[in-house]
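so i finally got all the pieces together for this one. its two components total, 432 residues if u count the protein bits. some of the lines might not be protein, just check the labels. i wanna see the whole assembly predicted at once instead of chain by chain like last time, that was a mess tbh
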Amino acid sequence: MTRGATLDLNAYLDGELGPEESAEIEARLETDAEARERLETLARQKDRLGAALAAIADSAPADLRTARLERQLAGALHRRMSPRRPFAAAPWLRGGGRVAAAAALVAFGWVAHGSWAPQAPGVPEYVSEAMGAHQVFAEDLVRPAEFTGGAIDTAAEWFSSKIGAQVNAPDLSGFDMTLVGARLLGTKEGPLAQFIYEDAGGARYSLTLARHPEDRPLAPLQAVDYPDRAVVYWSTPDIDFTLIGKKDGMSVRTMASTLAERT
Amino acid sequence: MDGRAELERRLNDYVRSLRRYALVLTRDTDAAEDLVQDTLTKAIAAADSWQPGSDMRVWLFRILHNTHMSERRRARVRDDARLMLPEAVDDSDPTTRIELQQVLDALSELPEAQRLPIVLVALKEMSYAEAARTLDVPLGTFYSRLGRGREALRKIVGGMKTTRLKLVV
C-alpha cells in the first residue's frame, strides 16, 4: 500500500474526508483486504490510545486550585460573551450601522417594582437584535416603515404566520402613543416583528416581538440601560418582547409593565 | 441550562482534555497540573482577546502548547527524555489494562513531532485543522506527521506483541 493511500485511510478514519472521497475509500475497502486490515488496525489503535489517555487523566484527583481557576475563566469568558457588542452582527447593520454606542452598554439592576427580577449579566440575543432594529428603523423619521396606517392590521396577520405565534400591535393610546408603522425583520434568531410608536413630542418607540424558543427560560420583566435609550424586555411562553425608547421620554418601564400585565 | 452553566460544563470538558495533553507534554502528573493551571491563569488574563464565536478549545490548547514550549525553552530540557506517563488506571480487566499501557509505552517511543498530532486527534476528536492550528504547523505537515506517527506506533505495538508472545512461549 502506498504512503498516500495510508494517509487517506487516516483521514477517512478521522472523519476528515468529504462524501465523494469517503465513497472512493469505501469502494477500495470492498476489494482491498490489505486496506481493510490496515484500517481496522488504525481504528483499534486510535480507540486504545483515546481510552488510555482518558484513563490516566480521569484517575487524577480533583485539584481545587484548578477548579477555582476554571470557574474564574468561565466568569471572564461569560462576561466576554455578554452583550458589549450586542448588535454588531445584526444583518441590517452590516456595512455602516453606527454601533459605537453599544460598546458603552451598561446593564443595571432595576428594583423599583417589586416583581422585577435583578438584571442578568447578559441580555438575550433578541433584545440586541431589537436594539439594532430600533436604531436603524424606528428612530429614522425619513425612512418609511414597511407598513403604515390600515395596512398594519393585515401585516400583523402575516407577521403571526411567519413568527409562528399570534402577534399584533398593542394599543398604547392610553400613554398618548400613536402606532406609526410596522415591519418584519429577518435575524439570525428568526423573524422579528417591529411595531413603531410615536409620542406627542414625536419621539419614537419600538416594540419588537419574536417567537420564544421552547428550550429557553422565560425572562421576567427586566431593564437594561443602553446609552440614551431605555430598554425593557420580558417573555411569555410564546413571545419574547422588547420595548425601547428614549430615556427622557414617556417611561418605557411603566409602559412595559402595563403591557406585560396584559400579555 | 443557562449560558453560564453551559459554559462551565464545556470548560470542564476542555480542562480534562487539556490535562491529558499536558500529561503527554510534561510526562509528570504534578507538572501537568501546573501547566493546566498556568494555562487557565493566562486565559483569564487574556479573556478579552478571545473572540466570541471562535473555537474556545483550540484557543486554550494553543495557550497550553505555547506555555509549555516557552517553559521548555527556558529550562533547556532535552527533547530526548523518554515519555514517563503514569500507569493507565483500568482495573476492570487486566488484559485491557496491559493493552492500554502498551499503547502508552509505544507512544513514548515516538518523536514529539509525531506524538503530538496523534494525541491531539485521539484526545477529543479534534479536527485536523484545529489540531494543526494548536501546534502551529501547516495542515499538510500535520497530516504527514500524523500518518508517519501512526504507522510507527503500529509497528512498535506489533513488535511489543511479538516480544510478549516469545516470552510466554
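DSSP finds seven helices and six strands in chain A.
Residues 84-121 of chain A have pLDDT under 50 and may be disordered.
anyway lmk what u think
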